[in-house]
Each structure stands twice: as structure tokens, then as C-alpha cells.
Specification:
Largest sheet: 4 strands, mixed
Shape: globular
Number of helices: 14
Strand order of the largest sheet: 3-2-1-4
Number of domains: 2
Length: 273
């Protein structure tokens, strides 16, 4: 099966009207002045699996360019602004991803997301993340997951005190719980970006957390987590769940020592709160 036919087949599986917008992005980037400089353009995330349903639906693009050019930002922004659908486009340059002394490799921040990008649909070029994922060992992925979970927890507090929409606060809560599921191998992080994991990414991960920590959670804690499930769907605040998430973060970062060097990680996490 040639790559063009395979791409057409994959695009047909995307819900309508998402498919229309994604195809439009593919054509816009192909016709742009940066086309020859594109290493790969990848679409990933919820738009591959469910139709746009509310004001918070969007398209997630991962764009990797071979080298820097002064007009890159201007060209990319014009393409994004010409779309009628909200879009998050993350720009990376090849050297940022491959330099062993670069900031990404040094911090390992969200490096586990490479698996989500590798499992996305490549609209243009060859997916660089498929090779990069082969170089990520389990310890590195687990370090990145727990660090990111802690940052998401910090964002829970920040977004709540900023009076952000319940969707934003709840999304940070769910992301924290989901990252803990990935860290604890309750969900396979290597399958990030697949439909299988997407369907676990929201409501189901709460059930996984309850089952994993049922020996240390009180009946009241479990009821609150189940209440959060309902309020998440209704776009309502559930501030009662925040202390429970804080407890889970502490429990995992301090007591779970199988996958990472806790003496290195815990002080770093504490400073981020």
C-alpha cells in the first residue's frame, strides 16, 4: 500500500466535519512557502476520534521544520488564522529534537508525548517521532510523566484561583490523574495517541485510579472522585477533589520508587508546587 493511499484511508476514518478542516490544513501547508522545509506535519489528539462538540474542541498539529527561517512564524500564523476552527500548532525544529545537549533532552519535559505524535496521522513528510521513540527508555518516560503530572497539578491551583472556566480546571485535574495512570502502567504510554487510549483518557482513568488506590482512599474520597466524573461531563467545578489529587501526587512521587530515582525527582517536584 503506497503512502498516498494509506493517508487517504486514514483520513476517511476521521469524523466529519473534522476531516474537512484537517485536509484543508494539509493543502494549505503544501502550498505555502515553507513546504520544502517541512520535515513532517502531524495531526493528533481528539479531533481524530470525535466530532467537534463544544467551544473547547480544537485541532492539534505538530509541525517539525528542517531548519529555521525568518518568515516561519508569519507564514504559519497566517495559515492557522485562515481556518475557522480553533487550532493548536506546536512548532519544533529538527535540531531541537535531535540535539542531545538541547533543552528538551536535558529536561525530558513531556518527552513521553513523542509516542502520541508517532501514533498521529502524518499529513506531510516522514514522522520523525517514530525513530525518536525508539531512543526513549522506560526510566526517562516515567520521569517525564511524573514531572508533567506535578506541573498539571500546579495548573489546577492556578486555573482555579484565576476563575478559569470549569472545563479548564477539570481538564487539568483529569490530565494529572491520567498522567499518574500512565506512570503507574495502568495505561500503556506507548499507545498514546491511539483510539484505545483516547477512550481511557477521561472518565475511565478515574476508575483506574480508584481501583489502584482503593486501600488508601477513604469511602468519602472514592465518592468524591466519582462525583468529579459527573461534574467533568457537566462542565461544573468539583473543588472537593483537589485535595485528593494532591494526596495522590504526594503518594506516587514519594512512595513509588520502582521506575525512577526518587532522590533526584522528589526535591524537583516539591519545588514546582
Amino acid at each position: 500500500m503506497n503512502s498516498g493511499y494509506k493517508l487517504k484511508t486514514m483520513l476517511k476514518q476521521i469524523p466529519f466535519p473534522n476531516r474537512h478542516y484537517i485536509k484543508a490544513y494539509k493543502e494549505a501547508f503544501k502550498k505555502s512557502k515553507i513546504h520544502e522545509n517541512i520535515k513532517c506535519l502531524i495531526v493528533h489528539g481528539s479531533s481524530l476520534f470525535k466530532p467537534f462538540s463544544n467551544d473547547f474542541s480544537d485541532i492539534d498539529l505538530e509541525l517539525v521544520l528542517k531548519k529555521h527561517s525568518n518568515d516561519d512564524y508569519k507564514i504559519i500564523k497566517e495559515i492557522i488564522q485562515n481556518s475557522s476552527v480553533p487550532t493548536e500548532c506546536q512548532l519544533r525544529y529538527t535540531n531541537e529534537l535531535t540535539d542531545p545537549k538541547g533543552l528538551i533532552q536535558y529536561t525530558k519535559y513531556k518527552i513521553f508525548m513523542y509516542f502520541a505524535y508517532s501514533n498521529g496521522i502524518t499529513l506531510i513528510g516522514n514522522n520523525i517521532y517514530k525513530d525518536l521513540c525508539k531512543k526513549i527508555d522506560d526510566k526517562t518516560a516515567k520521569f517525564s510523566l511524573l514531572l508533567t503530572a506535578q506541573i498539571y497539578f500546579k495548573d489546577i491551583r492556578k486555573s482555579f484561583f484565576a476563575n478559569s472556566h470549569p472545563y479548564i480546571v477539570n481538564k487539568n485535574i483529569m490530565r494529572t490523574l491520567f498522567d499518574l495512570c500512565l506512570f503507574l502502567d495502568l495505561i500503556d504510554y506507548k499507545k498514546l495517541g491511539t483510539k484505545e487510549v483516547f477512550e481511557l483518557e477521561t472518565i475511565s482513568c478515574v476508575n483506574l485510579i480508584i481501583d489502584r488506590f482503593k486501600n488508601v482512599l477513604s469511602d468519602s474520597d472514592i465518592k468524591t472522585l466519582l462525583l468529579f466524573q459527573k461534574k467533568f461531563q457537566k462542565l461544573e467545578y468539583c473543588i472537593e477533589v483537589i485535595p485528593i489529587v494532591e494526596f495522590l501526587i504526594y503518594t506516587v512521587s514519594v512512595r513509588e520508587k520502582n521506575s525512577i530515582d526518587s532522590q533526584t525527582l522528589v526535591p524537583l517536584l516539591t519545588n514546582l508546587i
